[in-house]
UniProtKB/TrEMBL annotation:
Molecular-function GO terms, alphabetical: serine-type endopeptidase activity
Family statement: Belongs to the peptidase S8 family.
InterPro entries for this protein: Peptidase_S8/S53_dom, Peptidase_S8/S53_dom_sf, Peptidase_S8_Asp-AS, Peptidase_S8_His-AS, Peptidase_S8_Ser-AS, Peptidase_S8_subtilisin-rel, Peptidases_S8_3, S8pro/Inhibitor_I9
Residues annotated as the enzyme's active site: D174 (charge relay system), H249 (charge relay system), S614 (charge relay system)
Protein's name according to its UniProt entry: Putative tripeptidyl-peptidase II
Inhibitor I9 domain ranges (all copies): 78-136
Amino acid sequence: MSKSMAQKRATFTALVTSFSLTIFISMFLVYIACLEEDRSIYLVLLEGDGVAFHEASHGHGDSARIDPNRGASVAHGRSILESHDLLLQNTLDIGTYTILHTFKHHINGFALYTTPSQVARLRVMAGVKMVEKDRGAKMMTTYTPEVLSLRKGIWAQEGGERNAGEGVVIGFVDSGINPLHPSFAYDPMQTFTSNLSHFVGACETGPHFPLSSCNGKIVSARYFSAGAEAVATLNASLDFLSPFDADGHGSHVASIAAGNAGVPVVVNDYYYGRASGMAPRARIAVYKAIYPSVGTLADVIAAIDQAVLDGVDILTLSIGPDDPPQDTLTFLSIFDISLLYAQKAGVLVVQAAGNKGPAPSTVVSYSPWTIGVAACTTDRRYSASLLLGNGTILDGVGLSGASFGNGTILQKLILAKDALKINGTFPRTPEYIEECQHPEAFDPNIVFASVIMCTFSEGFYNGTSTLGAIVHTSKALGFAAYILIPNPSYGDYIAEPIPFDFPGIMIPRVADAKVILQNYEDETKRDEKGSATEFCARAAVGEGRVASFTGRSPVVSRFSSRGPDIIDMKRNLADILKPDIIAPGHQIWGAWTPISALQPMLTGHNFALLSGTSMAAPHVAGIAALIKQYNPLWTPSMIASAISTTSTKHDNLGDVLMAEGFQPNSLYPSTPLDHGAGAVNPNDANDPGLVLSSGYTDYITFLCSLPNIDPNIITAATGEPCNTHLFAYPYNLNLPSVTISALKGSVSVRRTVMNIGNNRETYVGAVIPPNGTRVNLYPTLFTISPQETQDLEIQLSVTQSMEKFSFGEIVLTGSLNHIVRITLSVKPVSI
C-alpha cells in the first residue's frame, strides 16, 4: 500500500471515528437531558378505527360484536400495533419512552411513559389526534333487594332469584375480586343455562388467583398493571399482579351488582342477615386496574378496551378520575372518548358520580353516553345507645355488642385526660391525652373495667388518629367500653357504623357530648389543682348491631356529588343533567377481602358495610342487567332512558325527595341537580312504555353543537367531521331530560319517543313548568303503535329571570298505565 493511500485511509478512519463519537455524544446528551426530566404517563389517541369498528366501516355489518379472532380482525389489530411502533420509532429518541398499553379494539392509541420534551414531538405528528397526561384513578367509595321490591317485581318476572340476570355479563373495572367469597361461588346444583356465545373472555392467573378462580360465575378475570408499575414501586405483599382483590372495593362492588342470592352476612361472629346482588345470576368479568398503592387512567382505559373486546354487556366503573381534565373539555378527555366508543360498541357504561358532595358541580360523570349514579340512603338504621347513671339515654353509632350485662350494668365513666399516667414521658398532644391512640399514656389501674371517653379532635381531622387505634388501646388496657365524643371546638363529626369486636359507641353531636360531660363533672370529685380524685359517674353501652327500619328514605347522601354538569375547568355549565339517577349507596353490606389492604379495621372480615357512589353504581348496573335480560335487543341508551323516565321523586313518606346538606343532620328539598331524574325504580323500568334513545351519530352532533366549539377539536378527538349545515343546540340531544343552563327568551326543544311495548297506546301530555318559565308541549295527545316513533316539540319561554336553576317535568300518561316523566332543569336568564 502506498504512503498516500495509507494516509487517506487513516484520515477516513479518523473522520468516521469522529462522526461516530459525535453521534454517540449527541445520543448521550439526549439521554442525560431525558434523565433530568420527570417522566409521566401520557395517553395518546390516534386516527383510524379500532378493530371493533374497522370492519363495520367497510360494510361488514354490526360493529358491536365483531369476532376478534376473525382473520380480518387479527390482521387489522396487527397493523395497528405495527403503526404504533413505526410512529414512535420515527418520532421519539431511543431509550426515552416505554409503551405501557396499546389500545386497539374500541379506540386506536396507546399509553406511554416518557418525558414532556418527547411528548411535545409526538403532539405535532400527523395522525396524532390527542395527547393527554394521565390524571390517575381512584375508587369512589343486602337489604336493597327488599328496598327496591325486586323479589316480588322484576325477579318474579324473570323466574325468581335463581334466574334473575341469566345470560348477561357485567364487567367490573376496579381493584379485582376475591374469588373465594361465597358471593361469587359456583353452585353445581344450579347450573347456568345460557352459553354466553357473545362473550370471549379469559382467565389470567397469579398470586392468590389460580385458574380455578374462573368458576362459571366469574367467567373472565384479567389485570392491568403497566401504568401502576411505571409510576410507583409496588408492594409485593399487597399489590398482587393478578386479578385478586387485596383491597376489598372491587369485591364489594361486584357483589352488589351480581353477587349470589341469599349469602349469610356474618361479621365478628354476629349474623346480620343475607346478602343478594341485584342480578344474582348475571356473570362477572373482572378487569383489575386499581392497586392499593396506585391507580392510573392508562390501566383503566386498557381495561375498558379489553372489556369491550371480550363482549361484556354492561360495564361498571366505581372508579375513575377524581377531577375534570385540565386541558380539554370534560366530554373530550381520552377517558370519556373511550366511554363513547364503548357505548358505540353496544356496552352500557354505569359510572359512580363521585363523592365530593354536597358542593355543586362536583360530579365526575360528565358525558351523556354514560349513566352517572349518585347515592342515597335506605330506611335501615344501625343505632347504638349510651345509658348514663342518671337514667339519660343517648343515641349513637357503632356496630358492636353491648358492654357488661348486655348494656344494663353500669360501669365507672372516666374522661381520657383524667386517666393519664402521672409524670408520663409521652408527648402532650391530643392523640395521647384525649384521642386514646396510645395505651402507654394511661394509668392501667384507673382505666381497667371502666367506660372511657375519648375525643374526636385534631388527630382525626388531620388523619393521624383512627378508630382502630382506640379499639387497640381499649383491648390492651381492658376497658369496659369506649365512647368517642366530639371536641366542641371542632363541632359535630360524621359517624358511619363500622363493625368492631369491642364494645364502643360514637356520639357525633356536640349537644349530646355536653350532656355526657355535664353528668360526668357533676359526679366527679377533684382536688384544688383540678385533678380527678374520685370517679362516681356511671355509664353502659347498649347493643349496636340490631337494625331498625324506620325513618325517611331515600335521602340523597351528603357525600354524593352534585350537578350541574360542567364543560370545562372554568366550570362553564353543560346542557346535560348529571347525575342521571340515585340509588342506594349509604351503609351497604357487600363482599370483602380479609387482607383489607387499605382498611385495617376490616382486616379478617368477609363482609363490609360501606358508603359511597361506588356502592350506588353497581345497584344500577345490576338493575340494567335485569332489564337487558328481559329486553335483550335494547340499546344502552334505551336502557338508560327506561331507568330515567320511570324513577320516582318522592320518598317513603310521600314527600319530595330530601338531601343531606353541609351541616350534619340537616336536610333540604332535593333537586335534579342532587338526584338526577330521581330514585331508581327497577320494576317500572322494565316496562317503561316509551323510550328516548340516542346513538353515536347523535352524540357527535351534540359535541359539534357545544357553545363556541371549534369543529376541528371534535374531529381531532373523534375522527368525525362536524356537518356545519346542521344547526343544533346541545339541549336537542334526545335525552330523557331537558337541561338548559342559560335560557334566553324562547327556544324550541325536540324530543322523539318510541313505543317499545307490545300494544298500541294513547298518551296524554301534561307539563309542570319550572319557575320563571312558560312551557308548551306539542302534541299533547298522540297514539303510537309498537316500534313507532313520535316527535315532540317543547317550547320554553322565560317569564322571569332567575339566579338559580328551577325545575319541572313533562308527564306522558298512557292509556295502558305507562307513565313517562321527562325532567326539566332550566336557568331562566333573560326575557
